[in-house]
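Q: Convert this sequence to C-alpha cells.
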Amino acid sequence: MATFVAASGAAVAGGDAAAGKARAAACAGCHGPDGNSAAPNFPKLAGQHARYIVKQLKDFKQGKTRKDPVMQGQAAGLSVQDMANIAAFYAGQKTAPGAAAEDKVALGEKIYRGGNQTSGVPACSACHGPSGAGNPLANFPRLAGQHAQYVAKALRDFKSGARSNDAGRMMRDVAAKMTDAEIDAVASYIAGLH
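A:
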C-alpha cells in the first residue's frame, strides 16, 4: 500500500518539511536557503505547490521532458520520499516579492489577464489565477513573484520544445503563439504579482 501511495503522488502531502530542509541544503546554492533564489536565472521555490515541485524533480531525474544537466544530477539520487520532503519544505516557505519593469506592465497585464485574441494566446490568469497563486489541484504552478528572467526562459523553452513536460502540450501551444515582446512583458508582470 505504501508503494502505491508514493507512486500515486499522494505521498507529497505526507512530506516531512524538517527532513526536507536538511535534504534541501544542497539546493541552497542556486535556490537560496529558504527557496528565494537571489539569482534571476534560478527559480524561486518558496511557496511553490509541493506536488508541482515533486513533478519537476521527477521530470529532471528522468531527463526526457525536462533537461538540465545540473538538475538531472541533483535529482538522480533522490527517492520519491526525498522529493516529497524537499517539496514540503519549500511549499512552507514565504515567497519574497519581486518587481515588474514599469515599461512592461501594460502589455504584461493585458496578456496575463486577457490574453491576445488575435493570435489565440489565452489569459495566463485562466490557469495560474488572477494573483498568480496557481492551482495546486490541477498542478498549475504558483507564478507570483517569480524572477522575470526565469519565467521568460521557461516560456522560450516551451516555445522551442526544449521543455516538454507540460500536460497536453498546454504551455507549448500557448508559448508558440507568443511574440518575444509578449513573453518578456508577461514574465516581468508575473515578477511583480503579489
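The first helix runs from residue 2 to 8.
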